[in-house]
User: What shape does this take?
Amino acid sequence: MSKTHLTMSVNKEVKRITTHILQEMKNRGEKIAMLTAYDYSMAAIVDDAGMDIILVGDSASNVMAGHETTLPITLDQMIYHASSVVRAAKRALVVVDLPFGSYQGNSKEALNSAIRIMKESGAHGVKMEGGVEIAESVSRILTAGIPVMGHLGLTPQSIYKFGTYTVRAKEEIEAQKLRDDALKLQELGCFAIVLEKIPAKLATEVSKSVQIPIIGIGAGQCDGQVLVIHDMLGINNDFKPRFLRQYANLYEQMNGAFKNYITDVKSKSFPNDKEQY
Ligand code: KIV
Assistant: This one.
């Protein structure tokens, strides 16, 4: 790190985003930007860009570890990713997914998992998938003073129950359960809810009917949006669902850079006279 960079980092005064600020943003109609990150270097770039929330998602299981689903990632692994992100995030609120198996057993187990995340990573809140069925756990975690973000609609930890990653809550029965679950999570005291892959009309309706911020992914206009960083940067070349807007094609750019490096090494053009001591 150069001397100039060090001075700049020290002098930069940044105000941390809080759950209260997010609520104020919803109240005044300002949209909330949320993105995933799983490591220090990426999180530093995301934070410096002005992201409101960084989600240390259990999608790390897919994009960082190469698993087919989010189920295998462990609490220890989530804490490792979360601590790296927290060290980088100066402004963003850092929210961490409670991974599969760390909260479904009972509310005591759920509280212990949430406490471990907060204590060992320094994160600012946790996210949990599910509605009324996890109400007791959500409530117990909130009672301990830990901010909770809900997650409804397509909940990837239940993928083997759903069978596919297609749009949820298209039928009225499931749509009504989602409305009820959103109200329940709000009543319990959650500070926000992620709605994943549901019809835009339903997500907009829920955004209007609940007071807390609704963050959508594949859910049309809500109070905010979230994407998986590897998807929006085009690192996963073969994942292009309809809801995704790709802001870069890093697969192509990185692949090109690696090929150029290989060529330079093999041809002995790297290192040149100026690139050595
Ligand atoms: O794990 C994750 O990245 C998520 C987002 C898709 C919301 O839960």
Q: What stands out?
A: The mean pLDDT is 95.
